[in-house]
Amino acid sequence: MPHVSAPVSRSLVRTSPEVADTLASGRAVVALESTILAHGLPAPANRTAADDIEAAVRAHGAVPATVAVLDGVPRVGLSAAELDRVCSGDLVKLSARDLGVAVGLGRDGATTVAATATLAHAAGVALFATGGLGGVHRGARDTWDVSADLGALAGTGVFVVCSGVKSILDVAATLEVLETESVPVLGYGTDAFPGFYRRDSGHAVPWRIDSPAEAAAVWRAHTALGSAAGAVLAQPVPEADELDAALHDRLLAEGLALLTERGVTGKDVTPALLEHFHAGSEGASLRTNLALVLANAGLAAQVAVALVAP
Ligand code: PSU
Ligand code: MN
Q1: Residue 33 designated active-site
Q2: For ligand 1, atom 1, which residue shows the shortest CA distance?
Q3: Whose Cα sits closest to atom 7 in ligand 1?
Q4: Residue 147: inside a domain, yes or no?
Q5: Which site in 19, 22, 126, 267 is 20 to 30 Å from 30, CA atoms measured?
Q6: Which ligand has the shortest distance to the CA of 146?
Q7: Is the bond preceding residue 44 a cis peptide, omega within 30 degrees?
Q8: Residue 10 CA from chain centroid, whole number
Q9: Residue range 20-32: average pLDDT?
């Protein structure tokens, strides 16, 4: 399962002028994924979200680098017009295995956590913010549906700030795989692994940390000790934005039933479940989703700043 890749050729990845300058002068950059924009959030909220997430990174002193493949070129840092394209609704979802195909064929695509981690790392960006990680799906024993995000984190040195994983997944199995793959999981200000829409997935985190400085110290030591694996910094959604528990449980049961009914499989599973939550909660899940992504972008920026501090 580990996706231990040969280093991606840096010349293949195009960093925006601002991101390139920032990296060259040793200042803080935060990578952002684009699948969340193309397939995780409905239009037109996705386009506003793209700007708001980048602004949250800037508000904490770092430069945002949204990642996507456009015209067959992997890009780290997008212009406003490029963000328009990502949010247009036409981009396919690219996981790590799809990168070579999209580049080879000159296509466009939005990058998942796995693909974003690969490209961010190739560009020399360590911090990466998102909403939720992919993981082991319920019923994976039969379907073998385990997100490539986990294998990518096992073999790619990026520090991912997220709100855990959604309860659409088998959370316990996801945490087991992260343990097997030697990916450290840190709770930010919490002893509970967050469940995305809910602050507590019902599972504990092995480690708790309480400041960006601690996170930076852990990441420095993790890489200095020679680990090639990524790490997960899991921050719960702000209390005021948590999704109501009963609504959450109803949407989850309905969403899982819909998958079976419609025979949804493969890379369509995660977007179909997200879509059901947004459609079925009259905007409540969207508000939760936006709040947690903005908080994660801000925290990733603070950690990135702490990391480059002398
Ligand atoms: N989980 C979420 N929101 C998301 C995703 C996952 O709560 O938007 C997206 C991310 O881009 C993640 C991808 O990398 O789905 C995982 O897809 P799959 O399960 O097909 O690997
Ligand atoms: Mn899958």
Answers
A1: yes
A2: 132
A3: 132
A4: yes
A5: 267
A6: 2
A7: yes
A8: 22
A9: 98
- Render pLDDT for 137-160 as a digit per residue (tens, 0 to 9): 999 999 999 999 999 999 999 999
CA–CA gap between residue 39 and residue 299 (Å, rounded): 23
Encode 261-272 in three state secondary structure.
Answer: HHCCCHHHHHHH
Closest alpha carbon to 252 in 280, 287, 271 = 280
Task: Extract the tokens encoding 298.
Answer: 């801000």
Instruction: Point out the ligand nearest to the CA of residue 34.
Output: 1
Would residue 1 count as lying in a domain?
Answer: no
Give a yes or no: residue 276 inside a domain.
yes
Pocket test for ligand 1, best of 91, 112, 198 (most atoms within 8 A of CB): 112
Helix, strand or coil for residue 310? coil
Domain span at residue 300? 10-308
CA separation, residue 151 to residues 30, 189, 258, 293 (Å): 21, 26, 28, 22
Model confidence at 4, pLDDT cuts 50, 70, 90, reads: low
How far, in Å, CA of 95 to CA of 150, rounded?
11
Residue 149 CA to ligand 2 centre (angstroms): 9
CA–CA separation, 186 and 205 (whole Å): 6
Q: What is the mean pLDDT of residues 62-83?
A: 98
Average pLDDT of every residue of the chain: 95
Residue 183 maps to a domain: yes
Give the CATH number for residue 80: 3.40.1790.10
Contacts of 65 (CB under 8 A, 6+ apart): 15, 16, 19, 29, 30, 31, 32, 76, 77, 120, 123, 125
Share of the chain above pLDDT 70, in %: 97
- From the list 54, 82, 166, 181, the catalytic residue is 166
d(CA 154, CA 169): 19
Closest atom of ligand 1 to 93 CA is: 11
Query: How many domains does the chain fold into?
Result: 1
Q: What is the pTM of this model?
A: 0.95
